[in-house]
Amino acid sequence: MPLRKAVPDTFGEFVERYSLLMDLALEERAYKVDHNVSEVLRDLAEHVGLLRAGPRDVMEIHVKALKEKSRAVSSLKAQAYADEGRLMVLELMGYLVAYYRNYLMGFGPVVKAHAGAGGDHE
Q1: How does 83-100 read in b/e, with b if 16+ C-beta sit within 10 Å?
Q2: Residue among 47, 89, 25, 99 at smallest CA distance from 114
Q3: b/e burial code for range 29-54 (CB count within 10 A of at least 16 → b)
Q4: Whole-model pTM?
């Protein structure tokens, strides 16, 4: 069962968190600051993984957040959200894959050793 149906409140929290990360990622790009978005995405992937979510759930989180962010903004800002979101969803998906790979290999939660994986994007 999809997360949005199985645990709608938790799904909503994931969407809110991801939505906030979209804002922080845009700030990182525009103002060259470091909000450590990659680390928070890794943490989000772990929480999503603990609920046995899959790629479709990640896409639903991404699409819902993107729709909400793009609702009342200029087309230019909506495009910026879409561009940044494309990178973020791939990064989140990668961290979810790493979570499951580590889980299946008996390493437990996501190993923090590959902190640079996907974190350097512009």
Answers
A1: ebbeebbebbbbbbebbe
A2: 99
A3: eeeeeebebbebbbebbbebbeeebe
A4: 0.84
Per the CB < 8 A criterion, the answer to whether 39 and 89 are in contact is: no
Residues 50 and 44: their CA atoms lie apart, in Å, by 10
Q: Which domains are delineated in the chain?
A: 3-112 (1.10.132)
pLDDT at 15 over 60: yes
Higher pLDDT, 50 or 106: 50
53 and 3 Cβ atoms separated by less than 8 Å = yes
